[in-house]
Amino acid sequence: MIDAFRAFATPLISDNLARVPGAIGLRPFHRASGVMAGRALTVRTRPGDNQFIHRALDLVQPGDVVVVDGGGYEGRALVGEIMTSVAASRGAAGIVIDGAIRDAGAIGRNPFPCFARSAIHLGPYKDGPGAINVPVCVGGMVVSPGDIVVGDEDGVVAFPVDGAAALLAAVRAQEAREAEIMQSIRENRYQGAYARAAGGSH
């Protein structure tokens, strides 16, 4: 199921989640390499403190996306090149930080998916407190442990495994509709059908 979502862009998924879930303000810092998709390993940490991210890295299983609720604080970096390299070496599918990173140049040359709010040189505290595998909020989006997390150039969305099969079917149907629209544009026969079909929402 997770592999199937790697074939689709986040806007297609977001449109079929009533356009409600979706992290705001997070962007990719890694070298573009397709769609990130995996299971959420969630972390809640004190703003500017990464002790519990270190602890979470010891729990990473292949295919996990480490999702960190750093409170959106951008004054200290929560991860950098070393921690993203550790996550990648342990088979993580990516890392999502509601906060800042550092070593942006090195991360930007690497295909390992890393999404964050900003970059800053200042390093983190390592005192705690924090929590692992609890519901978190990143960019206004609630993520629970084990949720499917998908990210690309447009941002990050997450959703429960329950209902993922129905969501996947809806996404595939929308992709087919949009492919037909693009074909009609290329053939100069587009007549605004998309806006009418979507209720004028685009």
Question: What is the topological layout?
Answer:
Layout: H1 2-5, H2 10-15, E1 27-28, E2 36-45, H3 51-57, E3 64-69, E4 77-79, H4 81-89, E5 94-98, E6 100-101, H5 104-108, E7 114-116, E8 118-119, E9 130-132, E10 136-138, E11 141-143, E12 148-152, E13 155-159, H6 164-186, H7 193-197
Parallel strand pairs: 2-3, 3-5, 4-6, 5-7, 6-8
Antiparallel strand pairs: 1-7, 2-9, 2-12, 10-11, 12-13
Protein name: Putative 4-hydroxy-4-methyl-2-oxoglutarate aldolase
Organism: Mesorhizobium robiniae
InterPro entries: RraA/RraA-like (IPR005493), RraA/RraA-like_sf (IPR036704)
What does this structure look like?
The chain is elongated and about 60 Å long. It is 29% helix and 26% strand. The longest helix is centred in the C-terminal third of the chain and has 23 residues, at 164-186. Strand 12 (148-152) and strand 13 form a beta hairpin. It has 202 residues and is of the alpha/beta class. It has helices spanning 2-5, 10-15, 51-57, 81-89, 104-108, 164-186, 193-197, and strands at residues 27-28, 36-45, 64-69, 77-79, 94-98, 100-101, 114-116, 118-119, 130-132, 136-138, 141-143, 148-152, 155-159. Strands 1, 2, 3, 5, 7, 9, 12 and 13 form an eight-stranded mixed β-sheet that branches. A three-stranded parallel β-sheet has the order 4-6-8. A two-stranded antiparallel ribbon has the order 10-11.
